[in-house]
Design goal:
Elements: H1 2-10, E1 13-15, E2 18-26, E3 29-36, E4 39-47, H2 51-67, E5 78-80, E6 82-88, E7 94-103, E8 120-125, E9 128-135, H3 141-155, E10 166-170, E11 182-187
Parallel strand pairs: 1-5
Antiparallel strand pairs: 2-3, 3-9, 4-7, 4-8, 6-7, 6-10, 9-11, 10-11
Helix pairs in contact: 1-2
Length: about 190
């Protein structure tokens, strides 16, 4: 637990590498098209709980993992964003299932420590192109749903992206009260 606290308070945060391909603005919403690098990710799936509760549970597990609760007992440092895969229902609400993921820091990409928590899996993911919009504050389920709806509206029918899931991303530790960064990502088809 001490490693997790030290890791989130004192370490520098490594950003998930990406390149902006295009910027747009429509209906008072700014968005970007980005190319994100692939790599290895620590992932935990939480089902049967509301989005906010499931997300918090998954994030805490991943923070413990990168904070030293792993087979090597080492704190790896933090990466951003923490990414939560949301699965929308037909009515736009979110299903009670999330996948919380964190990109493994660069120095551990080749050989990440094994998680002590068996619910955490290490996944190899390919790079992807995304549509992204950003907003501030302490993001909750309704915020992500609202910005997903705004991004969908701004992109219109011309953009081809996966509609069965989207990413809800947080870049900041909970103790950062101002200048917070959250994003919704749609993955381009």
């Amino acid at each position: 637990m001490l490693g997790m606290i030290k890791n989130s308070l004192l370490s520098t945060v490594e950003a998930w590498p990406y390149k902006v391909l295009r910027k747009g603005e429509k209906e008072q919403l700014s968005y970007e098209e980005r190319e994100c690098e692939g790599g290895r990710f620590a992932v935990v799936e939480v089902v049967g709980k509301p989005f906010d509760e499931a997300s918090k549970e998954g994030v805490l597990k991943l923070l413990k993992y990168v904070g030293g609760t792993n087979d090597k007992g080492i704190g790896m440092g933090m990466t951003a964003p923490v990414s939560i895969t949301a699965f929308p229902a037909e009515d736009g609400s979110l299903q009670q299932k999330v996948k919380v993921s964190l990109r493994i820091p660069s120095q551990f990409q080749a050989n990440p420590p094994c998680p002590s928590d068996e619910s955490i899996k290490i996944e190899e993911r390919q790079g992807m192109t995304i549509y992204s919009t950003q907003f501030g504050g302490y993001a909750k389920e309704m915020d992500y749903m609202n910005y997903a709806a705004k991004l969908k509206s701004a992109l219109g029918s011309e953009a081809a992206y996966h509609k069965d899931f989207y990413f809800c991303n947080g870049y900041d530790p909970p103790m950062k009260p101002y200048g917070r960064r959250n994003e919704v990502w749609f993955v381009k088809e």
